[in-house]
Amino acid sequence: xxxxxxxxxxACAAAIGLASPVxxxxxxxxxxxxxxxxxxxxxxxxEHDSREFTVAAELSFEALPGxxxxxxxxxxxxxxxAYTAEFPQNWxxxxxxxAHGFRGESSVVxxxxxxxxxxxxxxxxxxxxxxxxxxxxxxxxxxxxEDTNRxxxxxxxxxxxxxxxxHGDINQYLIAGVSMGxxxxxxxxxxxxxxxxxxxxxxEGALPLCQAEQNQFYWLGDYNRVAQELAGLGHLPYEDFQxxxxxxxxxxxxxxxxxxxxxxxxxxxxxxxxxxxxxxxGERPIFDEGFSSPVWQGAVLGxxxxxxxxxxxxxxxxxxxxxxVYRWTDGxxxxxxxxxxxxxxxxxxxxxxxxxxxxxxxxxxxxxxGDFDVPVLTMHTLGDFFxxxxxxxxxxxxxxxxxxxxxxxxxxxxxxGHCGFSGSEFSTALVDLVTWVNFGIRPGGDDVLDPEVVAxxxxxxxxxxNDASTPSRAALPQCD
Length: 480
Hints:
By secondary structure, this protein is an alpha/beta fold. It folds into two domains: 43-215 and 359-455, Rossmann fold (3-Layer(aba) Sandwich); 216-345, no CATH class. 30% of the residues lie in helices and 13% in strands. The strands form three sheets. It has an eight-stranded mixed beta sheet, sandwiched between helices. A hairpin with a 4-residue loop joins strand 2 (67-75) and strand 3. Helix 5 packs across helix 6, helix 5 packs antiparallel against helix 7 and helix 5 crosses helix 10 (336-345). Residues 1-40 have low confidence and may be disordered. InterPro entries: AB_hydrolase_fold.
């Protein structure tokens, strides 16, 4: 193992993006852990296994006042990985592992330095933090879980070897993450992960923020397939989606610019918007602002036409919409027009055994099923059109099905972007999780399942904290 001591100031913004050319995930909690493939198939070969990655040359970062910074390389599940860590002077033995978001498809993995709100809060609470670059890019949550866990278990030994420092033994592990890193943090505390991981870690609490999970990839496929059909281009091959995207957009939306570029121009466009609202969590504040955003519409539409393997993370086709009817009405029954549209979009069944349990690590796509036995606190922005709020509803249903509901607290934040939390929201959530884990004081949260509660125009006001880091929120509907 080695470290690079060249001084370099590293930006503190968290990597919160998910993916551009990824695929699609099932909006049914009943399918989260079933029908996806049980039992390892040694004949499966995925493209990702042949990919090789190198570690960025510059790893160093500047420690905050009163803390010590460390960086270097270690061995991950796919190859070499970078680590970063920061210890306060008053370290009490606890470490918060931080999982970063999607970093694209580069062959170079890069170090992670969390945002300042996270670092300042963790250090003030006496915790060290550590983060892995992971040993692979792409949407590789398997590498994220296993590499983060290995770093956690070997951290103090790595620092002794690389830096000749002895901080003593770690007495508590917590985990936090954003976007794909939120998927990682949530999956890390699942019972299945603890049973199958190569490097299991007994985390005492988790903070998955704006988390993606396996259902994400059905949402992406649903929206794009429905958009193509409503645009009158459903007869064209889905594989040519990107080639036809300009026509899809112009057939459904008014040609405008700025923050509200995606305005429905006709009945088909409005139906697409209403279907999207139903698929992403139902009627709720800030949905309109998220839907109209060219940034997040572009992020979702940019995934259209993918082949179903999540860019080679899986060996077979993952997309499945056999349990869905695409609805733009809210009555108790599906209308004939809704059934007709669903039939035109078509029914697609995932390949059998597409995401099997492995015998040497967690699944290629680790599952978030709401099956855990430690405190978990989540936050999600209501208008997130890329990684939508519906994931919180599926998480709650899974927790209730597995008897974990009392260990899950969820917070809705009134913002339109993906992972667009204020520093105050980030800090408050971390303090509340630490207090819950160490003193048993369960923090407050929001009801995510009652449609009337979620649709209220004041929903999300209880835990939204606007501050200097979120000036753009002034244009949003305000709380009374």
